[in-house]
Amino acid sequence: MITIVNIDIGNVGSIVNMLRRIGVRTLISDIPDDISQAEKLILPGVGAFGAGMEGLKRKGLVEALTEAVMQRQVPILGVCLGMQLLAESSKEASCPGLGWIRGKVVRLRPEDRYLRVPHMGWNTVKPIPGAALFDPTADEPRFYFAHSFYMDCADRVDVVAEATYGFTFPVAVQKRNVFGVQFHPEKSHRFGREVLRRFSEFSIC
Questions:
Q1: Which of 92, 119, 147, 186 is catalytic?
Q2: What CATH number has the domain bearing residue 13?
Q3: Is 69 strand, coil or helix?
Q4: Is 147 annotated in the active site?
């Protein structure tokens, strides 16, 4: 079972529907005990970094998440804003993030001034060889994006996929049991379904 963290700012229904298609049971919860005892976690979110962190704090979920992810090594997947919350900080807010991935969240600034921000729509993604969330046989996997900020990672080893939108930037990270994707797998058809399937089957050896 995958527990989906509910802080009232994510596409929870769409994620549940996609997981159902691949036969994965889910629990939507904002109860700290559910989060701390979860087998796997998805942290979704859309909107502002500050609002996301405030939602986690208001519901008492930061400590529960830390216990599950950092102490019990429960796999977690941050989606869109959820990925950004994994970082240490954001240029969008004064509050710190969860800090599980070293780096900061910064605004998209494509070199081509004709490219609009927010970055919305389909974009090809280039995973590194062996990235756990991606099918190595897929030819130019495409995912749906809707964002104005991205994670600028301090450690390149944490970056497992990139995309290009006027410039190249990280769109997926992994540090042991901590995963993040800037795109929306729940809106990305077969490519997104495969990412969620692989996450649901991931285990730390």
A1: 186
A2: 3.40.50.880
A3: helix
A4: no
